[in-house]
Design a protein that fits this description.
The protein is mainly alpha-helical and 115 residues long. It has helices at residues 4-8, 26-48, 53-87, 92-114. Helix 2 packs antiparallel against helix 3 (53-87) and helix 3 runs antiparallel to helix 4.
Length: 115
């Protein structure tokens, strides 16, 4: 190999995984989701142990807020990476189409979060 670029280039048939906006924060998202998973298991345990309904609802509210925070973070990452990436498309027609598609994805996701 003549250069470092050649040495690092994917070989033939090597699948290249896409980079997503959240990739840089993936470990933090996974830690947070594992914590939420533990909270949900705790809620199930509360129900199994016949805990007071208001105490259970308080925990459900905490999990819901935590999931909303993850959702907002992912949405911010989508806009900052995917939408901005679409805006850097060199071909003007393709750029407009890519931006429209990414903005629609974001709007649809926001709509699902608000239902």
């Amino acid at each position: 190999m003549d250069s470092i670029e050649e040495a690092l280039a994917p070989g033939p048939g090597t699948a290249h995984l896409p980079t997503h906006g959240y990739t840089g924060n993936k470990d933090a998202y996974l830690r947070r989701l594992r914590r939420i998973e533990g909270q949900v298991r705790g809620i199930a345990r509360m129900v199994d142990e016949d805990k007071y309904c208001i105490d259970i609802l308080t925990q459900v509210s905490a999990v819901t807020k935590a999931l909303h925070a993850v959702s907002l973070g992912l949405m911010e990452e989508h806009i900052g990476h995917c939408v901005v990436g679409a805006a850097s498309e060199p071909d003007p027609a393709a750029r407009a189409e890519a931006i429209d598609a990414k903005v629609k994805e974001a709007a649809d996701a926001i709509g699902r979060l608000l239902r």
